[in-house]
Each structure stands twice: as structure tokens, then as C-alpha cells.
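for the recovery benchmark. C-alpha cells below, seq after
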């Protein structure tokens, strides 16, 4: 497969943006000083990053009224004049995210203003993972961490940053099913229900994902099953992590007093790095808080096994 965009081209874009865009430069400089701590669980760790610049995303209002009253910041005509782009095919543009979590952080919006949906787009996500293979690509569902649910987009961050990238194999005991060259795993005792697809065929990976998608419940008032998705390309294979969700935000998000923790989990949190925009919350969050948050917003292994059982006859 020929790459239409490379990681080195994206690196050049990032450097050029840091040279001319003060907001981005200041936030990437500040990222070097963010506080990070680790919380230990059984055979794995979750990192917690105190990142005050992410308050905009964590506290984003995504109700219909709020969205209608603001301009879409992913549409080209509403972006900062400093923001440059690299076209990715005819449908997407690669942008530098000026509010980074990763040392290199991208936003990849569609050229069209259409609602955030993953249906029919996993192949695009895998194409991105292949082309800019120094990055992990991620998708946040419209009520699963996305701060722009009205404009379909992916994000990408430096590969190797998320703990799940190194950990997942030790929790993947055996495939729950196989479809040609693609294998589907459910991670065992991993605190959050996680499907992992491993495949050297884009088409096979897409087929497995579409079966998962079709087998998940769509909640009343929603347009698609709630989920976060991560994808990366390594050793000539795609790895896709799917995190089915049961809730948008945990109870601590709206709790009062000391019980309040401002966190709106997305794909990065699911991947093992919790992003906390308030220092008071960073200082007090514990492993037990994380366990509670994940138990509230994620499905468990039992629920994922039911989904997998529903898939088997279809394949």
C-alpha cells in the first residue's frame, strides 16, 4: 500500500505550527511541565495527567441548544487563521490540536459538517493508522468524550503514549472468535470491558467491527451505540480497541463538594491515561475513584461476551 501522507510530513506541519501559532506553542511548552502520577491495579497501571488546558474539552456543553448557539470550531471557515492543514484524501484534513494531551496531538475532521458517527468510517480510521504509523488514531462517540458531536472527526496522538498499547496482549487469553485473518479478543480482568481486533487485513477488521457495531444496543434518543475506539498499525497488522460504553459521564462529574471530580472520559482515558483539568482533582483522585468511574461508564466482560455470542452466527 502506498502512503498518501507520512508521519514525517505531519512532523513538519507540527514544527511549522509551533513557529507561527503562539497559542499552540504555549500549550505544547506547558505540556512538558504537566504533572503525571501512576495508580497501580492488578498487573497494570493507569496514568493520571493534570492538564489544565483540557478544561475546555472536559467541561464542554454538548446539549443541542449549546451546540446550535456556537460556531463549529472544526469547520474550516471558523478555525483560527494560524491553523494550517494537510489534506487526507478528499474527505479529511489533518490539523494540529492546539490543546494537546500527547507530545504530538492531531485533530482530523471531515471536510463536511456532518454528525459524529463511526458507522462506515472504520476503514478511514485504519487508513489513517497505516499512513501516519507513528500515531495512534482514536474516535470518541458523540456522548463518549467528543466535544464536537456535530462534526465527524478523529484524533491522533504519539504512538506508545497510551498504556493499553503495551499491555493488551497479556489480557488477551484467546480469541473469542476469528474471521478469516482477523481475531477478536475480550480483555480479561482489565477493569473496563474491551474488545480488541487484530488483523493483517483492513477488510476483515472492518467486517468484525461492523458486526460488533450491529450487535450493540442503541440507547433511546441516540443515533449509534456508545463507544470509544483506538487503532494503530504495527508489525504489518492493525490493532483496534473498542470500548462499549454504558454512560457518558460518571456520577462524580455532577457530585457536590469533595465527591466532585471533573472528568469526562474519552478514548484517551479508556486507553489508560486519565486526563484531569483541575489540580484539586488530580491531587485527590485514587485508584478506587478510577475503579468506580470505569465501572459506571464502561460495560463489563459479561456484557461483552453476550455481544460476541450474538456476532458468531452472523459470521
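predicted aa per position
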Amino acid at each position: 500500500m502506498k502512503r498518501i501522507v507520512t508521519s514525517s510530513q505531519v512532523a513538519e506541519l507540527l514544527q511549522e505550527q509551533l513557529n507561527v501559532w503562539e497559542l499552540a506553542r504555549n500549550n505544547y511548552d506547558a505540556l512538558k511541565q504537566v504533572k503525571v502520577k501512576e495508580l497501580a491495579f492488578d498487573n497494570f497501571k493507569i496514568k493520571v495527567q493534570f492538564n489544565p488546558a483540557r478544561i475546555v474539552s472536559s467541561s464542554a456543553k454538548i446539549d443541542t441548544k449549546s451546540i446550535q448557539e456556537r460556531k463549529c470550531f472544526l469547520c474550516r471557515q471558523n478555525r483560527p487563521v494560524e491553523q494550517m492543514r494537510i489534506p487526507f484524501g478528499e474527505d479529511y484534513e489533518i490539523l494540529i490540536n492546539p490543546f494537546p494531551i500527547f507530545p504530538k496531538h492531531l485533530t482530523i475532521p471531515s471536510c463536511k459538517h456532518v454528525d459524529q458517527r463511526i458507522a462506515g468510517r472504520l476503514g478511514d480510521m485504519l487508513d489513517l493508522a497505516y499512513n501516519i504509523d507513528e500515531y495512534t488514531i482514536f474516535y470518541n462517540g458523540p456522548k463518549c468524550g467528543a466535544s464536537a458531536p456535530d462534526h465527524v472527526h478523529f484524533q491522533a496522538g504519539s504512538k506508545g503514549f497510551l498504556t493499553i498499547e503495551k499491555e493488551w496482549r497479556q489480557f488477551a487469553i484467546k480469541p473469542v472468535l476469528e474471521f478469516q485473518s482477523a481475531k477478536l479478543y475480550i480483555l480479561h480482568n482489565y477493569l473496563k470491558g474491551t474488545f480488541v481486533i487484530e488483523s493483517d487485513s483492513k477488510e476483515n477488521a472492518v467486517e468484525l467491527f461492523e458486526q460488533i457495531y450491529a450487535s450493540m444496543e442503541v440507547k433511546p434518543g441516540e443515533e449509534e451505540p456508545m463507544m470509544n475506539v483506538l487503532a494503530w498499525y504495527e508489525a504489518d497488522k492493525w490493532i483496534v480497541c473498542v470500548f462499549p460504553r454504558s454512560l457518558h459521564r460518571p456520577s462524580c462529574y455532577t457530585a457536590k463538594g469533595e465527591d466532585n471530580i471533573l472528568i469526562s472520559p474519552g478514548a484517551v482515558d479508556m486507553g489508560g491515561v486519565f486526563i484531569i483539568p483541575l489540580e484539586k482533582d488530580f491531587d485527590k483522585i485514587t485508584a478506587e475513584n478510577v475503579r468506580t468511574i470505569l465501572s459506571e461508564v464502561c460495560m463489563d466482560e459479561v456484557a461483552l461476551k453476550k455481544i460476541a455470542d450474538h456476532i458468531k452466527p452472523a459470521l
